[in-house]
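Hello forum,

I keep getting stuck at the same step: I have a sequence, I want structure tokens, and every attempt I make locally crashes halfway through. Rather than fight my setup again tonight, could one of you with a working pipeline run this one for me? It's a single chain of 190 residues.
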Amino acid sequence: GLSPAPGLRRLAPVAPAESRSDPPVACPLTKAAQRRELLLEEVEDFTSFTGRGVQAQIGARRVLVGTVRLLTENQIDTSALLATVDRLAAEGKTAMLVAIDGTAAGIVAVADTLKPEAPAAVAALQAMGLSAHMLTGDNPRTAGAIAKLAGIDHVLSYVIHATKTAMCQQHQAEGPRVGLCTHGINDVPV
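Reply #2:
Ran it on my machine without issues. Output:
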């Protein structure tokens, strides 16, 4: 959902900016805009910042959607949103900050749904003597909340896709067999 609740019109610049982003983020936002029958403007001058977010020109507006770090790098004051970001992360949600024309405008929160069988699957792996690790691009609080629900003890956050590949290869080189379970198409290169 959008927080603080700025009304449906705030989704209008966010959805087109995210429509060119990674499918796990773009799909829910694009679908939400379609359900609300919002007319989306054309995207111009799109840039993706790996692991941090996106920037796009939507009509006359410059839209940034991404991490606190991305907005801070662009000299945007995020202080009024940080408490909400922390609360959402503690709930296992990924908070993406939205800035329009250089001003923080709100937060879009998305959450991965933990499959009901995930904790049992992790427990079964551990009962076989295997170690389960979570490598995620999410922040530490969100990652920790999801890992706790799944029963995973080893968590690394802020990990980009190329690093996931390197870490899997490093573990393989050390001798143990490495299996990979992924939730999204964006992890296919691993």
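Strands lie at 2-3, 43-49, 53-58, 61-66, 94-100, 103-110, 133-135, 154-156. If your local run keeps crashing, start a new thread with the error log.
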